[in-house]
Amino acid sequence: SQTIHQWPATLVQPVGSPLSLECTVEGTSNPNLYWYRQAAGRGLQLLFYSVGIGQISSEVPQNLSASRPQDRQFILSSKKLLLSDSGFYLCAWSYGRGNSPLHFGNGTRLTVT
Amino acid sequence: RKEVEQDPGPFNVPEGATVAFNCTYSNSASQSFFWYRQDCRKEPKLLMSVYSSGNEDGRFTAQLNRASQYISLLIRDSKLSDSATYLCVVNLLNNAGNMLTFGGGTRLMVKP
């Protein structure tokens, strides 16, 4: 069966510090991978998605970036965090074929102080 | 207009009640539809897909109305454990494959 791992679970970082969140998927090949953010009391915002190694599409321009160095690894990064980057970050995967639902990791709760 | 709209609630219902949520979507080319459940401070989890003919999973029934561009979720015999936020999700396929858009969620609180 497929599993998705995301870490760390919680993170407190000062403004201006770098960020690296990692996500890996097991049990499937060539999945679509996604990074979402959910601000407190708000809906899910798609940040990045990837349909293959090295292929990244950005939905929202900001100081975050994503990379997919391996088929089942997705990394979310920032060189300098802003206060507004605080939120609940969720990695997800889906099958590459159409009409497939998303399956989420446990999420990372980031607080920028 | 938002792509996917939901009444944020909260819906406060007693145990055993039947409750229904609606969700409207703006893009008529949307291909597939899902309901997710999200507990406080947790990740969303797939509750059920929504099929054109309507589908049922135990106490949960989902329906799709393409003509009016809405989907619904009916929960019968509500349990305390049903308290959560229910997210409507619409999939618009493009060249990149799946492009899922989430509604803001409807919060349900089931009271004893």
Detailed description of the structure:
The complex is a heterodimer of chains A (113) and B (112). By secondary structure, chain A is mostly beta strands. Chain A is built from no helices and 11 strands. Chain A has strands at residues 3-7, 10-13, 19-26, 32-38, 44-52, 55-58, 64-70, 73-78, 87-94, 103-104, 108-112. In chain A, the strands form 2 sheets. In chain A, strands 2, 4, 5, 6, 9, 10 and 11 form a 7-stranded mixed β-sheet that branches. A 4-stranded antiparallel β-sheet of chain A has the order 1-3-8-7, with no helix packed on it. In chain A, strand 7 and strand 8 (73-78) form a beta hairpin. The model of chain A has no long low-confidence stretch (mean pLDDT 92). In chain B, strands 2, 4, 5, 9, 10 and 11 form a 6-stranded mixed β-sheet that branches. Chain B is mainly β and 112 residues long. The model of chain B has no long low-confidence stretch (mean pLDDT 92). Chain B contains no helices and 11 strands. The radius of gyration of chain B is 14 Å and the shape is globular. Chain A binds chain B through residues 32, 42-44, 46, 49, 51, 57, 88, 90, 94, 96-107, 109, and chain B through 31-32, 34, 41-46, 49, 87, 89, 91, 93, 96-105.
Largest sheet of chain B: 6 strands, mixed
Strand-residue proportion of chain B: over 45%
H/E series of chain B? EEEEEEEEEEE
- Shape call of chain A: globular
Radius of gyration of chain B: 14 Å
Flag low-confidence runs of chain B. Answer: none
Q: How many angstroms does the end-to-end distance of chain B come to?
A: 37 Å
Measured as a percent range, the helix fraction of chain A is under 10%
Q: Oligomeric status of the shown chains? A: heterodimer
**What would the principal axes of the Cα set say about the shape of chain B?**
globular
Number of helices of chain B: 0
Q: Name the beta content range of chain A.
A: over 45%
Termini gap of chain A = 38 Å
**Compute the gyration radius of chain A: what is it?**
13 Å
Low-confidence stretches of chain A: none
Which structural class matches the secondary elements of chain B?
A: mainly beta
Q: How would you characterize the largest beta sheet of chain A? A: 7 strands, mixed
